[in-house]
C-alpha cells in the first residue's frame, strides 16, 4: 500500500504539471495573438483616411504669414488688414503686420526681417520694385511664398494682385465730365511713385485729350499725412480761386486725398464744387452719404475683399496650385444717388451697388473644407 501510494502521488503531480504547462502556453499564445491584433488595428487606424484626415489640408494649418505694408494710413488700409487677418485666421494661420510708414528703406528692411524670421508666406502691400525685388528673391531662395498687391513687381513665381486702376479712373472721370457738361476747371490731387497712381494717371491723360474744354488749373499731392496735407493745400487753392464757378470739380486719385479736399471745400462753404474719388471705406461712405459733403462718388474695390483674395492666392501657392501672374480685381462705381437716406456700412453696400463685396476670386472648393477643419 505504501509503495503504490508513492507512485500514485508522483503520477498525480506529473499530470498536474503537464496540464498547468499546457494552459500556460495557451494563455501566452492568446495574449501574443491579441497583442498583435491590437497593434495591427492601431496601425490600420493611423493610416485610415478617417483617422488621419486630409494630409494635404493638414499641412496648410498653422501657417505663419507676414504682411509687409508700405503704409497703413486711413480706414481703407485698416479694412484691408482686417480682410487679410480674417481669411488667414479662417484657414487656421496667424498674421504679423510690418508697417513701414511710407518709407521704402524701412519697407525693404521689414521684408528682410520677415524672410529671416522664417515666415511661411509673405504678403506685400504696395511698394516699389527697386525696394522689394532683392528681398523677394531671398524669400524664394528659402522656399517662402510671396504674393504682392499693387506694386510693379515682375518676378517669376510671384503673383501680383492689382485693382483695375484704369477702369476706376475712367469711371470717375467720365461721370465728372458728364456732370460738368464737358467743360469747366478742375483740380487734380495725385502723387507719382506708386504703381496704382501711375496707372490712374494714364487714364487721366486720355481724359484730358478727350475733353479739351475741361481745364486743369491746379495739381498737387503728398502721400505723407495725405488727408491733412490735402486739406491744407485745398484751402490755399480755394483762396486763390474765391469765386463760385472758378472751380468745377476735384478729381482725387486716392480716398485719403478725397477726404482732405472734401473737408476743405465743405468748411469753406463752396459745396458747388464736386469731389470724385477712388477707393472706399466705411469712413468714406459716411462722407459720400452726407448730403452736405461735396464728395459725391468714388470707384473702388472692397478693401476687405482685396485682403481676402490676396490670402487665398497665397494659400494656392502653399498648396502648389497655379496662379495667374497678374490678378485684376474688379471695381465698381459708388455714387450718392444709388445710396439710401439712412447711413449704411461697406458690409451693407452690396444691397445697393451691384458687384460690391463677397468676391469669390481665387476661392477654391478645398478652402471651404480648410475653413471648417481649423
UniProtKB/TrEMBL annotation:
Keyword list, A-Z? Signal
Q: Read off the InterPro entries from this record.
A: Bact_Solute-Bind_Prot2, Peripla_BP_I, SBP_2_dom
* Compartment(s) of residence: Cell envelope
Low complexity composition bias: residue spans: 31-52
Name the Pfam families on file: Peripla_BP_4
Q: Which SUPFAM superfamilies match?
A: Periplasmic binding protein-like I
UniProt family annotation:
Belongs to the bacterial solute-binding protein 2 family.
Corresponding gene? rbsB_2
Q: Where is this region: Disordered?
A: 31-55
Q: Which organism is it from?
A: Paenibacillus glycanilyticus
Please indicate which superkingdom the organism of origin belongs to. Answer: Bacteria
- PANTHER family in alphabetical order: ABC TRANSPORTER PERIPLASMIC-BINDING PROTEIN YPHF, D-XYLOSE-BINDING PERIPLASMIC PROTEIN
UniProt protein name: Methylthioribose-binding protein
Tell me which positions the record assigns to the signal sequence: 1-22
Domain spans labelled Periplasmic binding protein: 65-321
